[in-house]
Amino acid sequence: MALALACVIALAYFFWPTIEYVSVRGGVVIVDGFYSLKPDFTDEVTDFARANGMNVDVYKDSEVTVDLYRKLPTLGYSLIVLRVHAGILGRDADAPTFLFTNEPYDAGKYFLEQTTDQILGGKIDADNSEEKSVFTVGPVFMTMSMKGSFNNSVIILSSCLGLFTNTTAETLVRKGARAFVSWDEKVDLEHTDRACSLLLRLLLEEGKSLGEATEEVMARVGQDRTYGSKLRYYPENATNVRIRQQ
Q: Peptide bond before 235: cis, by omega within 30 degrees of 0?
């Protein structure tokens, strides 16, 4: 009997989920390239995060630049919400995700970064001849030109295709992020706003783990109705990560 009890205790020790906490002492940042188009998401998240005692900074519209991405790891934020457009080059199995800036594309700027394919020009609607290109940054930029390291941060990319492949997520985790959350296909702005607002409330107000919160978001908000995209997180071992203030 004593031996059996010892075995149960040993099994519980090895297989019971281990809770891992990420502190938001470093603060929360929202990088919002869509703020002037639809500010509700950022205003709402800022209000309830501050109501829960968290420091929140917002970079919006023209402030979303190549140099903001370059210095982002050095700013020390623990929770990073990227509400920016994202896109992929082709649909290969290892296609990287590029993050859009709101900085107008200039072929003569960032010469080194452009010649090494760290940054590219991109359009939200590639078929719109009247839309002007902006700079986008990809995983090579994150590896070569992002300064410093992330502070064991949780990064939420509230946008299309962030986890179409794991390439960009892997790069950010190697850069010091603890977890990366995004969609595995295209997603409508209104849909991702609703889903990620709920996700943040579950994480920040209800103290749910990343796995629990993501599962609940998918149950309550669901896949994007047009594209069928799902909200996912990377890596899989981040499922028990919880966010707390201290």
A: yes
